Amino acid sequence: MWVADMDYPVAPPILRALRARLESGLGYPQLAGDPRLVRALQTRLAGNGLTDLPEKGFKFLPGVVPGLYAAVNALSAPGEAVITMTPVYHPFHLAITDLGRVVAAAPLQAGAERDEIDWNAMELAAAQGARLMMLCHPHNPSGRVWDAAELRLLREFALRHDLFVISDELHADLRYTDAPFESFAADPAVRDRTVTVTGPCKAFNTAGLGIGVLVGHSPELVTRVMAPATGLMGHPSALSITMWLAALEEGGPWLEDTVAYLRGNRDFLVEFVREHLPWAHVFSPEATYLAWIDLRAHPRADDIQKVLLDEAGLAVHNGPVFAPEALKPQYQGFVRVNFATSRALLAGGLERLAAALNPEVRTGEE
């Protein structure tokens, strides 16, 4: 229950399109970007507020992570600070440190009902001289969808500190909130300083067919980000392009049903943890199929991942993975759990977790 893909079958329209593509041959795809896919993405992203995206504002990638690295490489210099909120999907801080930059971390703080941005921490991060902010929206692993008020403050923050922004919006289609999704660059005030990365792999469970896109309203900024990576990364395959186009054109009903099932799984997990592990803590994710569970109150929190693997046969993602080296101790005792499985398997995994961690359960078994 650790790796971020789903246990569900791929949407039938995608399978049909892939079979048809196989039967028609596997020559080179259009390496500059399939015009049909660009048009479909223009329509889809306009619904998130990214209206009027120019055709030259699209650069296709073999996945989203290369876009994160490309942005760090092009929009910051070695030795400079790069701002990101922690905990965060680990390629964020790895892109920073792998390329010789410094993580200017702004740890999230626990609010009454959800994790929240610590604005004092953000200002301290900006004071380190950063020129780039890496935003995860929706946020992995907290499951937050930054709301309109938070996005307004984030945009003001970027403008006040003259920051470039790369916004990873990969999980935007996996939301449980009623409000429409709003991209960071929906506001024209920040469009000339922002690039957005996204892809189909999370929403449509197609991680094995790598593809992503980096988009921006400023073709010049998009070129600035991608030009240094020319020849250093692969291009999407004919099958991945076919898959994404089919997902956008025909995958809507499948996605709607899947999100509804995931919502039920989310509610089941949160209720289970609160009932059976009252000493633990979990906020209800607003997006993603990932739960961020605080198990620091357990006496074996310092080795919690190994405890769950050895004593429960349960593989989870260890909290410190989601922080740069200096902050790893702060997240020891947290785990990230994937709930994109059947209700029966989810229940079984959570029962194993409770049996391994609740002393009274273990005593009863002995």
Explain the overall architecture.
With 366 residues, the chain is of the alpha/beta class. It has two domains: 25-250, Type I PLP-dependent aspartate aminotransferase-like (Major domain) (Aspartate Aminotransferase, domain 2, 3-Layer(aba) Sandwich); 253-355, Aspartate Aminotransferase, domain 1 (Alpha-Beta Complex). Helices cover 40% and strands 14% of the residues. The protein has helices at 12-24, 35-46, 64-75, 91-98, 119-126, 148-160, 201-204, 219-226, 238-250, 252-276, 304-312, 343-357, 359-365; strands at residues 58-61, 81-86, 102-107, 109-110, 115-116, 132-136, 164-168, 194-198, 212-215, 281-282, 290-294, 317-318, 334-338. A seven-stranded mixed beta sheet has the order 1-9-8-7-6-2-3, sandwiched between helices. It has a four-stranded antiparallel beta sheet with strand order 10-11-13-12, covered by helices on one side. It has a two-stranded antiparallel sheet with strand order 4-5. Helix 2 (35-46) packs across helix 9. It is globular and about 60 Å long. The model is unreliable at 361-366 (pLDDT under 50). Residues 23-352 form the Aminotransferase class I/classII large domain.
**What's the order of the H and E elements?**
HHEHEHEEEHEHEEHEHHHEEHEEHH
End-to-end gap: 26 Å
Strand order of the largest sheet: 1-9-8-7-6-2-3
Main beta sheet, described?
A: 7 strands, mixed
The residue-averaged pLDDT reads 96
State the low-pLDDT regions, or none: 361-366
Question: In DSSP terms, counting alpha (H) and pi (I) runs of 4 or more, how many helices?
Answer: 13
